[in-house]
Amino acid sequence: MKLIFKINYRTAWGERLYVVGNIAALGNGERSKALPLSYVGDGMWMASVSLVRMKTEICYSYFVVSDKGGIRAEWGNPHRFRKVKDAECVELRDSWQERPADKYYYSTMFSSVVFRRENRAKDVIMPISRYALVRVSAPSVKPNEDLLIVGNCQMLGNWDVSKALKMSDSNYPEWRALIPLNAMKGVVEYKFVKRNRETGQEYWDNCDNRILDVSVPEEQKHAIIVSGLKFCDSERPWRGAGTAIPVFSIRTEDDFGVGDFLSIKKMVDWLSETGQCVLQLLPVNDTTLTRTWMDSYPYNANSTFALHPMYLNLKAIGELKDINRRRYYDKIADELNSLPQVDYERVNAEKSHYAREIYDEIGGTVTRTNEFRQFVEENIYWLKNYAAFCFLRDKFGTADFSNWGENAVFNQAQIDALCEANPKEIEFVYFVQFYLHKQLREARDYAHAHGVALKGDIPIGISRTSVDAWTNPELFNMDFQAGAPPDDFSKEGQNWGFPTYNWERMASDGFLWWKNRMRKMSEYFDLYRIDHILGFFRIWQVPISEIHGLLGRFYPALPLSVEELSKRYGFHLQPEEHLSPYITDDTVEELFGNYAEAAKSRFLRPIGNQRYALKDSVDTQRKVEMYFAGKSASSQNRIMETALYRLIDDVLFVEDSVEKGKYHPRIAAQSTSAYAALPEAEQAAFNAAYNDFYYHRHNEYWFEEAMKKLPELVESTDMLACGEDLGMIPDCVPMAMRELQILSLEIQRMPKILGIEFGEPLRYPYLSVCTTSTHDMCGIRQWWEENYERSQRFFRIMLEQQGEAPSNAEPWICDSIVDRHLKSPAMLAILPWQDWISIDGELRYSNPCDEQINEPSNPRHYWRYRMHLTVEKLLRSAVFNSNLRNKVRNAGRG
């Protein structure tokens, strides 16, 4: 059999085209042995091979090599075709697979949920030669629509859609049509059309007529396969609505003081009832480190793979045999469910006890099942070490593995021996994770069947006392802490405490840890939020010796030398002046007040020129923290501790941790005493260096850094990627997000256009998620009440109302704000549940201040918010649900 490869590709000078595939003639997958194509004119490249024997299926792809050695490959899955029984010649007419402009339609959110096709046609296989097989990617065809091929011959309906050839969706999102060659002659013109089976609405290919040349010798056993085509949909892009709520916040009539994975099913019922299609959750990984309420922080996981045992639905595992124990747990459940918030410690303690009791009763049977064994086998790469971590955490009473004696430094052989020596303890962890996996998969499958996609959340960091840090410390910069520069949430910046990523080491194995993490997540979710996406461009990195985010610096970065500061900006850096805290008598009086003299004696030493330096015992914020640890929380101690932190913050530059002798301007340094003491000319020079450093210097550099890793991670699964791109955003971020089709996050009260107070939802980009607030913010009602003057401006400018604004966000105010977000061009309008419910005066909660999930400025915040209504009551609120469903539909969403 002869194979002829044809592809139209416009190369630049010095570029050559190759085809590589899974047969020897195509290099057996090795690019160095690939088949070169020859240029035959008019953009067409061609090559042919003759095969004595052929595989059942050949997979292949094209790539371009430049004379400088650069390689450009196709996007997506390879081309493929199956053996045609009697064919003497198969002509493969391919189109180059570029990343499609509608790549988002290829995500599981669309293929498995929004455009999910339940009853697909049988696969189209070319039985014998003398046929043309036409294949086209058309992911935007909805379940109630067909794709047709219509053209200028009788076989294709002579441009009459009612007589057009219906294509097969057997390989959706690819569609196929098999056309006899003897039914066409010469050059055929055609187009694709999608048609609604219920309404007859048609959407034609938005492109010129397509061409198919079927001029082949009649006596030859010839076959033509056309692949790589893409349907140019003329319909307005799809838009949908959704709800954001943490799993722990869901309240049902039969849970155990906290939402669980099976509670998701009832939320799905409500979303389906109201015309919504996305349920957005916070991270659901295990955060058990101290077994106190401090573990309620969902972004501080002890494992990036393990699920939180708190989300187990206990009765779905099995009922306890002892009726007294059943009654005991029923009583506990009633008590916990009656609380307005989550009692994190009691919920987790009681659920853990129940899980242990049910394991003792049924564990021996469950762990012998094929289903359990398969789960362990598929997840052993993380499960065993996680189980050992849990065992050692509980044995030593701490997750800080530096206190684990001989196990402080991870050794796989030692851990294997530990697991063998403690089989029941290890197996119990497996048992719990097995049921968590089953229940979350059950919730996902239920959501899919009801047209709802689950949106997960990928935290930017990992706990420094986690399984990941213990087993793979080389992947992280353990001497630094991730955080964020100062913003509306925190004037001192944020310090999350997570170690930062060692991207160079991660790149050395092709980002395997990240890819495993993403693939595990894709077992449960269809789209995901990348927490703090800026961290993939640069992270705000705070030395382990400091506490405030103000003393951080960007990593990676291009720090400034003394020479560059002088020559380029005219600023003359004096290390002894500009790297140390600026402390004078006035500063001490201002910060320490009545305790100024005591502070000078205990913490400072004079260095001349009416300046002071900190004593070695308190010259870092971590030392200050340790100094006051255990001391009484007196007013004097609190004032002194806070004042010392502020003194340490008061510098103009911080030295780079790697390139010694190079420096970063301290973020927001213009608010320091050190800056105020500079002469006016020096201030101007500093400002020039500062503005260039933070807003221009790194744009291209950070873009290149992000594009080394983000494409690898985004393309590793079929989930739809959404970025949290709030805060101090360099220009390179939206540029990379647009290129990779990562959805941005748009919030009206945090506009991305400099100089305006409120964003305009009607101007948001299509590739975005718009929302009224996030878990880190107060809802509409609380925000309205915080600042009446601001609310009055919003009332007049954004709501276009006259007169005095109401002091409270009345239901019609909330309704108007929600409406404007639904009408936004954004692909997704995902609103917090609290803001959806705010539009109904009877259903919404009495005190909006109790509805904020997190307070970012408080590192010790207790994450415990719960819905004030059960989902069952919400489902019975027919008038509200009907109103909401109509709002969503009338906005063109769904």
Automatic annotation (TrEMBL):
Domain CBM20: 1-98, 124-240
PANTHER family xrefs: 4-ALPHA-GLUCANOTRANSFERASE, PTHR32518
Name of the protein described by the UniProt record: 4-alpha-glucanotransferase
Keyword set includes Cytoplasm: yes
Enzyme Commission number(s) from the entry: 2.4.1.25
GO molecular function annotation: 4-alpha-glucanotransferase activity; starch binding
Recorded superkingdom: Bacteria
A Pfam family assignment: CBM_20
UniProt GO cellular component terms: cytoplasm
EC category name: transferase
Organism: Candidatus Limisoma intestinavium
